[in-house]
Structure formats: structure tokens, C-alpha cells
Please model this.
Amino acid sequence: MKGAMLPMPVKDNNSSPRKSLIYYYIIALVVLMLLNTFLFPSLLSRPVVEVTYDAFLKMLDAGEVKQVALEDTMLVFAAEDAEGNAAIFKTGIWPDDNLTERLVNAEGVQFAAEIPTQASPLLSFLLSWLMPILVFVIIGQIFSRMLKKSGAMNTMSFGKSNAKIYAEAQTGVTFADVAGEEEAKEALQEIVDFLRDPGKFTKVGARIPKGVLLEGPPGTGKTSIARSVAEALNKKYVRICLGGVRDEAEIRGHRKTYVGAMPGRITVALKEAGVSNPLMLLDEIDKTSSDYKGDTSAALLEVLDPEQNSKFNDHYVEIPQDLSEVLFIATANDVQGIPRPLLDRMELMEIPGYTENEKEHIAREHLIPKQMEINGIPEGKLVIQPAALGKLINNYTKEAGVRSLERSIGRICRKTARAIMEEGKDKVVVTSRNISRFLGKERYNYLMANEKDEIGIARGLAWTQVGGDTLQIEVNIMPGKGELLLTGQLGDVMKESAQAGISYIRSVSDQYEIDPEFFQKHDMHVHIPEGAVPKDGPSAGITMATAMLSAIIEKPVRADLAMTGEITLRGRVLPIGGLKEKLLAAKYARIKEVLVPEKNRPDIEEMDREIIQGLDIRFVDNMKEVLGEALA
Model:
């Protein structure tokens, strides 16, 4: 009949566990057969004591013998032992013609064809029937619970590590190995609290992400955060480095048909952890690549997707593995290198660079004691003054993290140890004046704010992999044919920002009394120093437009002001990213006032007071407001 639908067979999801349970019952049956063969017979039989023939005659004369059975070369009899309990004895038969007469004349002695050595019928029934049934049921219940805990038995699973029992505390879990990064630690604290007491959160329908991505510059403590989370949860910690991995088989494993086949890194990490719910760190996930052998990022989709990883299939093992209990934490320096579908499977947490104050605390509390211990310097033998430490951070290192800072402190400690051993010094004090004796000349100098206002020079803010920096944009006007020259190894986006800026200036030239023929009779040269360093991004748009207009109308730009923001043809100022690093760079350069897009106001409100302290931040929405603040 048209439109009628045949009933579809319903798949029984419990068929596989039941099938596996039958296998376990077979194993239990084999165990019972072994018990019936070796253990139960020994429990059912009474012990037989061997005595001498003289001892038998003495027991017979004393009236202790109750029952006698004659065999070919052995005489077995039942009698009372020294404690008055019934027992079975045996002895060898000696040539004695009077034995039969003595047994007949003895009182209470009975002759039997065989004396049974088994226990009582009740005990025999219990051990032969009820005990096997009871053991069979207990083993079946144990295996049934194992099935329920580990899920379907077609999934390979390990045991589970025991997480710490949740206990209320005033301070809670602290990430002692990581300084700063309060926002990221607050988000990770929520994950720790959830995993320590899931019932408290699931009651309100909350779910925890099974994949977390920590994104930030090198040396900012991403790996330390993951290790601290594992310690806080009492979970096994395993690390998988994905940098340079380009073969899909590294994740899924090789098929056994290939020579030198091996399981994938996920399976190897699970075996190393020994439990099914470890914390697995996927380090440098943005450094993976793909070739003709497959796409590594595509293989990671199944690993990180909570809807799929309950039956992750390794080609070498050929048994589905349950990864649903694994807490994955990935690290990356730049999310631009991660495919969008893979990024969507993870909870993104940004780990920005450290402030100068945070670096000082890290150095005092962690790095200096660590390097002194490594180099064998006793406590109190080395003192690094605050001014020297500040100079070390600003002039000898230029990074968002603290790795170069730790290496520089290590150099100071090694030279200190040598001075103590060779020169016999009792104490070494490092000051801002003598630090060059330990580390040499200064390597970095921040471009400080200009002393006076200048025409055609504006200060911009930029984001780099190692933190923020300032850009001094210079513009010169010269007679020519209206050409725009851009130098300083600028990227395509920055070149387009410059063209958008000059188009905006031409559109408002009448407001600044600019001759309409000015742009046909003059060339404009825009240059950003440090030409060996590639530069790109839209955030220098308002800075270049300000410098160009300043050069055209010959009005100086304030030297104590820096700005960041993208410009449009109509003069609107659009929001930008990396604001924390840019503001830190402005503080290092002794900038007093910073112009920030109005739409970045929420970012400023979320920042720590330490970052914005000492800066006068002005929010701008269009170029008219920018020029009103910037032009002196």
C-alpha cells in the first residue's frame, strides 16, 4: 500500500555486553571446575594418621578402637585421638596369629569393608553443590559490574585513577607553579571544581568541556598550567608533542600489514598512563601539518570530539578505545594555524604575556631560587637588587614569557658560583651598574617617547609573538606627481591601511584648507623603521593617517601619545586585538596617553588595574576625535 512503512528492526544495544558476559560466565565455569578438582576434595576428606602396629595394639587394649577395616597390606581403623575426638588411623599388618581373636574379643570393635574418609553428608552437600553455585553467582556479579563501569565490552578500556574527594577549603586549589594569568587560572579553577565534585554542577545541567586549548606566546606557562591541573585533580599526566607531526598514522596508528607498524600516540599515551581517565596534554597542536599520507588535524577531530571519541579506533590495536573520560588540554602559540573544525572542538583560553611586575614576582619567587639551587649557591650568597632585576627584564630580554629571563638569571648564577670558588667572595650583589659585568652590554632598548612634538611622526602600537611593541611612523612630503611610497617591509594589510588613510584625508581636505591640487603635485613617503622586521596588520591605520595629515598641514603630533585602531574610508575607527600587550609596550616606552577604539572599551574594563595604571586611555570612535587628541 502506498505510504505504508515496514517496521524497521531495532538494534539491541545490549547484545554486545550480553555476549561478552557469556564469555565471562564461561571463564567462571572453568574456575569452578578447577576448584572442584583440586580444592574441594581436600576440604571434603578427613585426614588419615599413620601409627605403628604397637600403638594400634595399645589403643585396642585401651578400648579406643571403634571400627576396623582390613586391606591387603594395611589396617585402617577408627578410634579416638588423644583429645577424645574421632579420627582415622592406619598401620601396617604384622604377622600376628592372634590378631583376629583379639579383635573379636575386644569390646565395641566393629568390622567394616571400608572406612569412609569423607566429611559429613551435610558438609559434602554444601561444598559440592551450594558452594559452587554461590561462587558462580558472585563471579558473575563482579563481571557484570565491571561491564557497567567500562561500558560496552567491545571497547578497550583501562582502570580509572581516583580523583581527590571534594572538600571545602578557604583557598581552594592554587596553581602554585604559575604566576599571573589570573583570568586563565580562574577558568581552569572552574574545571577543577567540576571534576572534583561533578554532582554539584550536573544538578543544574552544567557540562564541562573535554577539550581545552591554551593559546599564548612561548614561555607563558601553558604546560605548567596543564601539569598543575593534573596535580590538583590527582590525575595521571601524559604529554604528547605534536610539533612537526604530519602523518595521520601518528594519531590513528599503522595497520599491521605494514613493516614497522606501531600503535598511535594516543594509544601509547594511554598505556603509559595505565588508566582510562588521565589528563592528556597535546603540546604544540598548531605545529601539525599534512601531506600525501593524510591530515593530522582531521585525525584529531575524532580524538577531541566528545560525541565520537567514546569509540576511537586505532588501526594497529583494531579495538575501539573509550576516550570519553580523558581530559584533553592542548597548547598553541597561534590559533591561525589550527583548522576551524578542530578549533571548534575545544574551549579556547588565552594566556597573554606577563607584565613587568609579574615577571619580577616570578623571578623572585621561582626563577632565582631554582637557578641558585641548580648552580649550588647557598641562600644569601647572591643578591639581585630590584633595580638590576628591572633592567634585566627590560634591557636584556624581550619576550612575553620568562624563558630568556631564566637563562639570563642562570648566567648570573654561574658567574657568581665561579666568583665564590675562585675569588673566595662571601657574597655577590648584582646592581644596575655592575649587571653588564655578568651579562654584557644591553641587548634591547625600547623606543622611548620623543622629547618634543614633531611634524609627520606618530607613535603606533603593535602586537608581536613576544609581546607588544611601539612603531614610530615617519612621513615626508616632497614635490612630485602624487605617488604614495611605502617602505619598511610592510605587509599587504598595512599597505591597504595606508591607502585607506590617504583616501580619507583627500575626502576631508577642505576641512583642513588643503589645496585640491596638492595631491597631484606632491609625493608622499611613509616609512616605518627597523626595515628588516616584517610588519603587517590593520591596527596602524589611524596612526598612518595621523602622521600623513600632520605632514600635509605641517602641524606636529604629540610626542607623549600613542594610538592603535583600524581606519575605514569614512574615517570610522574599528576595534583591534592584542590590546594588553600593546598597552604594556606603551608603559615601557613611557607613553602617557593612549587612543583606543571605543569598541575595545569592554577589553579595558576586564584588564587588571596594574596594566592600565599610569596610562590615560582615551576612547575614540572616528578620525575626527583622533586628530583632535593627537595634533598639538
